[in-house]
Amino acid sequence: MCARRFLLFIFWMILIFVAGAFAIYQYGGSILRRGVTPQGHFAPPPPRTGPDYRSDASWLSKPGISPDPSQWRPANQVRVDPIAAGPAVFYVHPTTYLDRDKWNAAIDEGGDTGFRDALFVRSQASAFNEIAAEVWAPRYRQAAFGAFLLKTTDANRSLDLAYSDVLAAFDVFLAAQPKGRPIILAGHSQGALHLSRLLVDRREQLKGRLIAAYVVGWPISATADLPAIGLPACAAPDQTGCLLSWMSFGDPANSQMILDGWSGSAGPAGIKRDVHDLVCVNPLTGTRDGIAPPAANLGTLVPTADFTSATLLPGAVGARCEKGLLIINGAIPALGPYVLPGNNYHAYDYALFWGSIRADAARRVAAWR
User: Fold this and answer.
1) Do you find a cis peptide bond into 51, omega within 30 degrees of 0?
2) What is the DSSP letter of 333?
3) What is the H or E stretch that residue 181 is in?
4) Which residues pair with 122 in a beta bridge?
5) Can you list the alpha helix ranges (DSSP code H) found in the chain?
6) Is 239:210 a contact under the CB 8 Å cutoff?
């Protein structure tokens, strides 16, 4: 597992050396779109060829799978057994398919894509392994990276196919849970987008069972999304039945590449989304629009030079919600060269606050009890 393979979806880093950092900051979005658009048109798969979520082969993590990447821990953390009476966690990984040959990855894509799938489960879903009875993470026919930078029929159909897999996986996950067992939902980027749809479509099934939903790295509107989702943004660190969402940026932040296509789009009830209505719940405070100094951060994941392991560094990175974005500050450690245009720390939305996310989930589980 070498650094070359770590989070390769940030391939545009090559462009920094070609066009210069200033050009990427100003025009990175348009350059990126031209370089990642999948070739040809979306072609729907043959009927009944989707993943079988009754099989372990369709899951990255679930009870009985070994080795299970969700059970990873930082090198300097003491291993603690999961809580048998804890909640079940359903986690959906972000985009890891970076090729342009098709609009959706295969369920068994393997190679670098499969490596990155497991890597994100280790670095993100692992934040919940201490408080959860079970962690489930499906493989799915994820949309290619380029689908997120386009407003086309092909892109929409690609995303719909990916979501249909996530929904099918969730139904199998839910059916496997004992009656009354509480649930935590977590996802990032593409995974968070699919969770935002799932929360609407499975609102009744989740009623009275959801401790919290960590819908991270995807913009959520307070007026266009939350009413249909049926959850408030978390306003207290021990609140349950609420949603956490944030997008991490350095200062100064340029969110144009992320929000241009989102602003003006329709929410589930047809209400248009607006950049002035973004939900930002600070993972360091557990509250909407929170502000916290570096000392409040219980631990940032800092990888080793070869990215085969990581240690937890507390007290390094602070954060404040500002205009719907989570602006980070402090002595930001060397996480790797994978910061997106506009000072966007998207790839590190969980890693920056891993220890505090772990504590946040523990507080909400304790409050639920």
Assistant:
1) no
2) -
3) none
4) none
5) 13-19, 21-36, 111-123, 153-175, 190-201, 203-206, 226-229, 256-259, 354-368
6) no
Note down pLDDT in tens along the chain; length 369 residues.
333 333 333 333 333 332 333 333 344 455 556 667 888 899 888 888 889 999 999 999 999 999 999 999 998 886 666 666 799 999 999 999 888 889 999 998 888 888 889 999 999 999 999 999 999 999 999 999 888 877 889 999 999 999 999 999 999 999 999 998 999 999 999 999 999 999 999 999 999 999 999 999 999 999 999 999 999 999 999 999 999 999 999 999 999 888 988 999 999 989 999 999 999 999 999 999 999 999 999 999 998 877 678 999 999 999 999 999 999 999 999 888 788 889 999 999 999 999 999 999 999 999 998
Tokens in use for 226?
């939350």
Q: What angle do CA 331, 276, 346 make, to 5 degrees?
A: 35
Length of the chain: 369
* Cα–Cα nearest to 218, from 183, 191, 257, 184: 191
b (16+ CB within 10 A) / e for 83-93:
eeebbbbbbbb
Residues 6+ apart with CB under 8 A from 128: 70, 89, 91, 135, 184, 186, 357, 358, 361
If DSSP codes are grouped into helix, strand and coil, which group holds residue 216?
strand
**Global model pTM greater than 0.85:** yes
- For 337, other C-beta atoms within 10 Å of its C-beta total 11
Q: How far is CA 291 from CA 169, 179, 237, 284, 287, in A?
A: 36, 38, 13, 8, 9
Q: Residue 266 gets which letter from DSSP?
A: B
Q: Tokens representing 359?
A: 């504590």
* The two structure tokens encoding residue 105: 């990855």
**Residue 190 identity (one-letter amino acid):** Q
Q: Judge whether 92 and 138 are in contact, CB under 8 Å.
A: yes
